[in-house]
Amino acid sequence: MMTIREAGKEMGSVSETEKITINLGPVDLGRIDLLVEQGVYTNRTDLIRTAIRNQIERHDTVIQEITVRHSYSFGVLIYTASDFEKLRAQGKKVSIHVVGMLTLGSSVTPELALETIESIRIRGKLIAPKAVREALADRISTGK
Question: Which of 21, 58, 100, 102 has the smallest number of CB atoms closer than 10 Å to its CB?
């Protein structure tokens, strides 16, 4: 696997955040706005990120148990064609389980991916060439 710095050269910049959309009722939204207005939080996003981090921290034991049980890796994993070519030369396939971000480099072809990737379980973000994502569609589990 390559480092994040090397991946930046191949893939362009690696985003550290992903945009999500949530729906809130007017009362909850108003309460958030009051806290922002009073300077408790700098903006709505700041409050929402803090609330999410607090909930994740609160359930850390459960998260740790699940990741151990399902052999998840945490963080950012980046694979290039050479990583998969080594696996192919050894006659091996890989199952990739990630909590965070998985990047399959632009040099990875659909054929190479099909020959070497048994499955992908991603809880977070997957970055891969469109053709590779399409070829592996039945092998990818995103948990969404």
Answer: 21
